[in-house]
Structure to design on (625 residues):
């Protein structure tokens, strides 16, 4: 049986709703009620905005708290200088250097790909390409950063590694080179999109000045537009660096899991992130030294990316061009 | 005079050469995307079947499927969306419409910019230490969903703010002139008008969360799971159940990671199949976002 709601005059219904459960007798009481309601809503919204601060505090607090147990066992000197990282062995050594080296090498390979290619793409899209082409290419390139990183890991291991093995004899299946190259391609859009935005913000009059002096497009782009947009471009480079340092799945799949203190990208080596993944996959008891070691690795990673983030923020503030 | 012509020809040649270099560099990205898709299709398409979607993972590659992991991904996304969207939109509205220019606002803004640059695996460590062990939520769907919600919160906040910023000041003033309170302006005007831009941001954020692997591995998501979480609907009263929130889980990218690192080539084909499902979902979400953005831009002219 369907119950039919009692018909009510729409205006009366609206008035009922507005007055709430206990109808105030005067207009001023209604106004006071609505003022209270506004206050409550504003406070709720402020709490929501503050949740992001709470998350940051949670991150910093957890990293410091959990790694403090680690550093009660291991001296900071050993952590920063010992050349071996074997926290799960029966004779454990706790030198973070091999992991940091792995992170730096894969990052360097990625940047060797992403910075030049990304910059050229940005110059091309901003200064050379017809508008219609740009409107198609830009979203297409941004899809590169929408692909899940685990898929890139698969691609690095199953496609890039065999491909590179044809050119570099003796290249092992797991190596930092193929992981780094694929990671570099993944971060091209971070560089190209942001750099292009920065270059397009350069006013036309600067370009016209260069043309009037007889410069062609490429000279104008390199000698006028690029320097004028430098702060935005450098900010995009720094974002790329911080992405590459924090990237996890590509290196965990394709770069190998053994800590290896080497600067040769053809060798396999674990990065900080790959180590955290490797340890998390096993069943580590809460409070064991292995459990604590991932937080020590994590705080190292956090500090490395934080430095670049602050640098990027400072550069944007400091060198923002005002036209 | 011929000198002059030679210089002009040289400059034109320089431009032409750079044009070629630019096209080649752009192609590197596009071709890689193409190669990646073709590679996945060749390896994974033969594995895709109804059985692949309805079977649990197995020790035998041919019988293994992704049932538990796609259900896990779906449940995690429900928790993530229900947490990140209200929180992110509310925070965005506060910062854009309510916040005064003071040090608190400044602190929140710098903080959001910084959060966006924190590597995803760090969120996983935070969730492991805080949610799993301090708050004792366990290695559950709830923990996983909250972790990813924290991760995409900055994206949702920034998208909401940008959408609100495109609404002209006149709309707000007109509503105030009719006696609206601040919340009425937000509720009846600003939120409906900005919904296109906000939705675009939310969809892109969720598509990013679907592909996230590292933070969920860190909190201890399972790599092999042969049962489903308890269903949210029951035949007996009270008909709804939230037991699934505390159930262990696996997700699609973790399933793929688990298969890709095995030596048996048949499992690698399974990984490609899972990757294909994953990439189809994320790319279609992005396509939807692009369409919404395009239509909103076309429809609304202030």
């Amino acid at each position: 049986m369907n119950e039919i709601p009692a018909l009510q005059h729409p205006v009366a219904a609206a008035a009922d709703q507005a007055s709430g459960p206990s109808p105030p007798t005067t207009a001023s009481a209604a106004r006071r009620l609505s003022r209270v309601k506004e206050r409550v809503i504003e406070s709720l919204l402020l709490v929501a905005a503050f949740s992001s601060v709470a998350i940051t505090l949670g991150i910093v607090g957890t990293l410091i708290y959990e790694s403090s147990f680690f550093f009660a066992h291991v001296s900071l000197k050993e952590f920063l200088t010992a050349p071996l990282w074997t926290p799960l062995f029966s004779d454990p050594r706790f030198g973070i250097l091999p992991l940091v080296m792995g992170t730096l090498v894969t990052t360097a390979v990625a940047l060797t790909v992403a910075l030049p290619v990304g910059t050229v793409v940005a110059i091309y899209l901003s200064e050379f390409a017809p508008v219609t082409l740009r409107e198609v290419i830009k979203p297409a390139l941004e899809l590169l950063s929408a692909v899940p990183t685990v898929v890139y890991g698969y691609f690095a291991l199953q496609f890039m590694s065999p491909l590179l093995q044809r050119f570099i004899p003796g290249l092992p299946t797991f190596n930092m080179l193929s992981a780094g190259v694929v990671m570099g391609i993944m971060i091209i859009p971070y560089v190209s999109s942001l750099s292009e935005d920065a270059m397009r913000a350069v006013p036309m009059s600067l370009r016209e000045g260069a043309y009037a002096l007889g410069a062609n497009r490429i000279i104008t782009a390199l000698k006028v537009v690029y320097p004028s947009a430098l702060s935005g471009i450098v900010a995009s480079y720094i974002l790329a660096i911080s992405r590459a340092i924090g990237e996890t799945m590509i290196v965990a799949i394709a770069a190998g899991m053994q800590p290896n203190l080497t600067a040769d990208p053809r060798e396999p080596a674990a990065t900080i992130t790959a180590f955290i993944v490797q340890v998390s996959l096993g069943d580590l008891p809460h409070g064991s030294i292995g459990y604590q070691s991932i937080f020590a690795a994590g705080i190292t990673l956090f500090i490395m990316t934080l430095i670049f983030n602050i640098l990027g923020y400072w550069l944007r503030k400091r060198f923002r061009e005002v036209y | 005079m011929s000198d002059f012509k030679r210089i002009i020809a040289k400059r034109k040649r320089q431009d032409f050469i750079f044009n070629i270099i630019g096209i080649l560099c752009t192609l590197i990205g596009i071709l890689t995307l193409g190669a990646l898709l073709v590679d996945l299709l060749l390896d994974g398409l033969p594995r895709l079947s109804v059985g692949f979607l309805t079977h649990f993972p197995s020790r035998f590659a041919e019988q293994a499927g992704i049932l538990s992991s796609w259900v896990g991904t779906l449940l995690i996304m429900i928790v993530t969306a229900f947490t990140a969207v209200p929180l992110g939109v509310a925070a965005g509205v506060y910062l854009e419409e309510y916040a005064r220019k003071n040090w608190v606002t400044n602190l929140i803004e710098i903080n959001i910019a910084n959060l966006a640059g924190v590597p995803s695996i760090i969120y996983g460590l935070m969730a492991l230490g805080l949610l799993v062990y301090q708050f004792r939520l366990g290695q559950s769907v709830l923990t996983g969903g909250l972790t990813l919600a924290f991760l995409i919160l900055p994206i949702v906040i920034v998208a909401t703010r940008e959408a609100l910023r495109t609404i002209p000041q006149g709309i707000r003033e007109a509503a105030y002139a009719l006696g609206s309170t601040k919340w009425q302006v937000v509720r009846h005007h600003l939120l409906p008008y900005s919904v296109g831009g906000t939705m675009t941001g939310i969809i892109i954020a969720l598509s990013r969360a679907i592909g996230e692997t590292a933070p969920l591995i860190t909190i201890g998501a399972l790599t092999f799971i042969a049962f489903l979480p308890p269903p949210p609907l029951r035949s007996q009263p009270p008909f709804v159940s939230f037991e699934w929130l505390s159930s262990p889980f696996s997700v699609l990218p973790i399933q793929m990671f688990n298969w890709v690192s095995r030596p048996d080539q048949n499992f690698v084909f399974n990984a490609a199949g899972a990757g294909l499902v994953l990439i189809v979902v994320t790319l279609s979400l992005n396509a939807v976002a692009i369409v919404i953005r395009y239509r909103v831009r076309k429809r609304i002219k202030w």
